[in-house]
Amino acid sequence: MKKEIMILWLEEKIQQIKDTPVSVVDTKEKQHYLLGSLKTLELIKEQLEQGKFDEITQE
């Protein structure tokens, strides 16, 4: 997958998580899961932008 497409996909998923109202998440466990997912996606996006995955994102 191209790097630019992957970054756009990650940005979309990050925004979806940020747009999820806390009131929709019914347990603390799910809130922690969402926060962990958000941080993981942000880290992956940051590393993609820095070129750390260039060898696997090239066609």
Report on the architecture of this protein.
The mean pLDDT is 90. This protein has one domain. It is mainly α and 59 residues long. α1 (3-18) runs antiparallel to α2. 0% of the residues are buried. It is built from three helices and no strands. 71% of the residues lie in helices and 0% in strands.
List keywords for this structure.
59 residues, mainly alpha
Q: Could you provide a short overview of the structure?
A:
With 59 residues, the chain is mostly helical.
- Write the H/E string, N to C: HHH
Report the portion of residues in β strands. under 5%
Largest sheet, strands/sense/barrel: none
Radius of gyration from the alpha-carbon trace, in angstroms: 14 Å
For the secondary structure, the number of strands is 0
The protein's oligomeric status is single chain
Unreliable stretches (pLDDT < 50, length at least 5) are none
On the 0 to 100 scale, the average pLDDT is 90
Total of domains: 1
Measured distance between first and last alpha carbons: 7 Å
In helices, the fraction of residues equals: over 70%
Helices, by number, come to 3
Gross morphology is elongated
Secondary-structure-based class equals: mainly alpha
Question: How are the SSEs placed, and which strands pair?
Answer:
Layout: H1 3-18, H2 28-49, H3 54-57
Helix pairs in contact: 1-2
